[in-house]
Amino acid sequence: MIVADLSRPELERRLAGPGLRLRTGPVVAQIRSPLGAVADGVALHYAAHPIEGNDGFADFFVRVDRPRNLRRWLHPQAMFHIDGEAPFTPLPLDQAFPLLEWGLNWCISAHCHQYLIFHAAVVERSGRALILPAPPGSGKSTLCAGLIHRGWRLLSDELALIDPATSRAIPLARPVSLKNRSIDVIRAFAPAAVLSRPVRDTTKGTVAHMQAPPDSVRRAAEFASPAWIVMPRYEAGATAALTPLPKARAFMEMVNSGFNYSVHGRNGFEALARVVDRCECHTFAYGDLEEAAALFDALATTS
Amino acid sequence: MTCRAWSGEIVVFNQETGSTHLLDAFAGTVLRRLMAAECGASVEELATALAHGQDAVEQQESQQAVTAVLAEFARLGVAHADAS
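Above: the input entities. Below: the structure tokens describing the complete assembly.
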């Protein structure tokens, strides 16, 4: 069963009551929330995701609701809970769905240590994974959103999961987080993209989430072999160009993008070395998304 | 200590500290010689092995370079000077 199989009243009933056990790739999160904004976001962005029975296993038990304080009436807020604890400060109520997304990211990056986890987007073509590690503001999500509308499969926008035993990239197809100008860039680049209503004045500026393509969600069991590590950087007016990046430096860039690299110790070092061994490594500057997509199309077909 | 080399540059994982370091080709060569020498090596031995030539100036430059690399290794906890 997938989320779209539930009627809206049934979705709301589960979220407000016993919880919705949502599977995203290898992770099952039980989500509870009485908030309409969360139900809207789940209905829009997770329509194609499988749901599990409430008698099965869940990795995380999360809840997004309104804190019980005076602000409840003056400036309504939303608060994220995991296992009854609230690790973050509350945010304005209209940020409830982004808060759920950020909270789920945190749950996975802080707990799923069976994987090496990097702050990177991952897309796939012909079984080969393109890993895009980059700091915030680099244009990583914009590039990722663009590529998945030009023939690449989404594995993840935010968290690259690598199985240390096999060095393969594990799909975690969830909504793509777009910020500020990239929202309009993607609207123009891919008019068919399904975006949520932009939420303004978040700590990241204006945020809108883009639905993961249903095909990427359905293919969650198809792992991919890393073939490229590319560090993207948006530069206004730049011609799209790849520049070779020495592997040792690419290795260190991955280390610096790691959420839990240090947790894995020597095994993590050796697993990451195997990934770098098999990858072409580049930096990538781009100023135009069509140019960027064409360049990666050529990369996928020629290398 | 575990290391991997690509095109001259080396990344090193220090199991004692859990840290990972990027070394340039020269520092990587110094480290590999240290790791290969069961009882360690003196600055002079390393400098002689790594000098580009045999004259006194080149030997001195090599010794200065090795000394600087070893100081960096000590700071990073990669290798330590032996008082003996």
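Note for the figure: The longest helix of chain B spans residues 56-76.
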